[in-house]
Request: fold
Amino acid sequence: MTQPASAPTVSTAGPSEPLLQVEDLRTHFETPRGIVRAVDGVSFTLARGKTLGVVGESGSGKTVLSRSIMGLLPKRGTIREGSVRFDGTEITELSPKEMRDFWGARMSMIFQDPMTSLNPVMKIGKQITESIRQHLDVDKKYANELGENLLRSVRIPEPEQRLKEYPHQLSGGMRQRVCIAVALACGPALLFADEPTTALDVTVQAQVLDLMATQQRERFMAIVLITHDLGVVAGRADEIAVMYAGRIVEKAPTSVLFSDMKMPYTEALLSSIPKIEHPSHTRLNTIPGRPPNLVTPPQGCKFAPRCTYVQPRCLEEDPPLMPGTQPGHEYRCWFPVGTPEGAEALARNRADQAVTGGAA
Amino acid sequence: MAGSGTAHLRGDGDSLLRVEHLLVEFPVGRSGLKVNAVTDVSFDILEGETLGIVGESGCGKSTTGRAVMQLPPPKGGRVVYDGVELTSLKGEDLRAMRPRLQMIFQDPISSLNPRRKVKDIVREGLDIWNIGDKDSRDAKVLEVLEAVGIDPANVERRPHEFSGGQCQRISIARAVVTDPKLIICDEPVSALDVSVQAQILNLLEDMKARYGLTLVFIAHDLAVVKNVSDRVMVMYLGKVCEVAGPDTLYSQPAHPYSAALLAAIPVPDPGTRPDAQQVLGGEIPSPMEPPSGCRFRTRCPRAQPQCGQEEPELREVAPGQYVACHFPLEPGEALTFGGPPSVSI
Amino acid sequence: MPAPPPDDIPIPGPEGQRDLDRYAEDSLDSGLAVAQTQLYVSAVEVGGEGRRRGKGLGLGAWLAIGWLTFIVAVSVLAQLGILPLKSPTESFSECARLGPFAKEGTAPGHLLGCDSNGRDMIARMAYGGWSSLVVATGAVLFGLVFGGILGLLAGFFGGKIDAVITSVFNVFLAIPAVVLALALVAFLQGAASSGSGGDNVDPKLLLILAIGIVSVPLLGRITRASALTWSQREFVLAARAQGAKPMRIMVREVLPNVVPAMMSIALLAIAIAIVAEGTLSILGVGVRPPTPSWGNIIGLDRGRIKESPHIVFLPAILIFFTVLSLNFLGDVVRAKLDVRESAV
Reply:
């Protein structure tokens, strides 16, 4: 099988420099209601070939984050600050015209809904070869061959036939495979996958996630996997960043996050998911309240109003990202889970609740 | 008959809802072809029970729910609810039954009229049937809204002023206002965030206890279905694969499809590497031309020639566990996926 | 037992966030967005529009409202005889055909000149505005009522009812509108004179009926499309599941959602009807002289466009600005309504 040619990447970065380095990225939207702080100071680095899982609920800013890094947000009404270094180049200052050399060729994106992200009136073949021909100097025939190989590599049966078909002739899972093929066409070094399997059935979801993992290994590609499903990232990501109210509230290598989570939000999120191994009618833990208003977020810790560990200090002082005991672990909490301070805070709140509950 | 049979039905008199040989087909244009959405599906629910119906898209689970509601009436089969055969009713008689069984939908936004106030939306059922006087209706509306956790101060608002989770609470309030015994929940939490999903699932349990409800809970998320159900029915391509109690089904699935579904769930535990998981290959075949014999055979790693010729009937393989398969998994046996999954079209 | 989770204080924040997310998604998800500047541009535009919708009406809309208020007020007040206008039918033969800026002999008191019969242009246009607006509004109301009912029935019930109504609409739409209107006027005139035995039927009524009938399939099709979409929403299914009768569902659930679409299209339809009345008048079957309408002022003196251009151009300017305002307002109304739907 022929490997599709990779893009002519001219790396200016040293081998030690990470592929993607995001520093204090802020993305605010001007709206009639005020400034929405959709992304509010996010920093992380991502090495080649690695997967970062970004987990958050709707409104946590995870989708805006990925678009902001790629420079895909409308200029008008958007305030973007901070630094994004991709492969040694600072890309926040680049114009859309300059960014076009990156989009598709060196970083690309797949979306939740494979139907809307494909052009319904364009044949699959055209949609794949378009990007190849734009970025690579190849003739039409060769581009078609590449396209066919791509479809084969994402395990689409009868690829030469599929090239002549339209998106509606394929099933949801096949369409998402085509989207992946399109995104991989020019051999990007970085792939953003924004809820890539949310619209798919479980068995198809597993197929698509496996496919992404295989392609990642073959291409040594970095992936930012954005999802609301902790189950999806648990097995697939090397590192996980949990987002809340436009910020990363906890970040850790996957195994560390699950074995030693420090942020009460992460704990609450995980415990609100129904588990297969629990018996039926197990009462689920819920996170009371709603995510904060991003126009006028609360003072102090943004999660404090919903937190079971909350103490007076949390309502006043905003916790910074603090390093955990294990390398690469960071969290924003004054009374972390699994520490004496945290246990004490929780015990105090439980006692208070028992008192007020008993009085009521 | 594949995935059909009525062995799993319990005594005729005990069940609140009894569905026999349900058949739903949709014509495809003028081509003469038809979509076999639901073919010969039978099930029953005892009063106070929650039946979970689980399956992937296109398995006919939502169609089954709507056919029970007679929206539209099914093409064949019997639906007996609370001693009344709904499938034999027409016009006014059927309409009179409607407030007694209700439905909750997947999309909390689409299921509320954007131009009506919340209190009017919830009160509609009482207004249609002229239940009580104005004051008692208002009192009932406030009572159910309070029960689902909507602040009575907000009843003058319209749906777009509420979040998705709150809209789903309003939908639940609307469904219980006419005091139905049975509520069909069609993917009620799949459009919600996990934290909100937990709130709604807990709320459904509370409502069940408070109003003595019986639920049909349709979902594609197996963990969610397990959480709420007393009995689970797995469907595939318009047929029943397996019916069992949730603990049995999830610990010891007998149908290869049930086992494959369980194997595909991503587990929020990094210890379980998905590479070790095995994945069911292929995709669901077209419901216009379903495979002969057992409809799952085209993707089944255990398929034998017999499966293409003969449709398996539901039979009891363990107490309370019914499976429609010629070669069900023995207790303790794990499903092995033979060879690379063949990708069908 | 803790109280139900207080997740229920509606805060605008997350919703705003959701909208932002949504429009970014809508515009960016389509296609190989990633590599296409085109889409970037459209995202910027969508973003811009999203913001414009959020704010007040904007200057253009206020100008349009101002103009329409002025036109309606002048027409109504003139008709009521409150305005100090000359008679629209009285001839001042000495100043016939003289325009407002004629170098010599502009008759004192005729600010905008006179028509070919020496009738005061201001009075003609003010009284003519009444005829034009009555005919246009009446016709559109007729079209809205009948087109709306038919469209609602077709969209809500579907099936055979839809097939019959839609094919009737299609037959009417296949006939050129002007030809159809001419035929209808002739037919209605015949029917009126044979029925009442006289000529005493107001020609405005005939025009309202003729233009109204022509507009029924146009408005009906738009109503049908909107009703069809809304009828498939789950709240309609929910109402049916509660046992609501079809009429109740149609009136309470579907109609309130269809009305806004009909309103915005009605504004555009009035604009079209004003032009249609003008066209019919120019063809000689409009409002009958000496009663003025904007259309027949132009129609009567269209031959003199070279020597006395003001007679043709002044009412044309009125029509132009009125139609422009209505169109503009129709767009604004639609944009406003879109926001209400998407905020849902």
Q: What stands out?
A: Chain B touches chain A through 50 residues (CB under 8 Å).
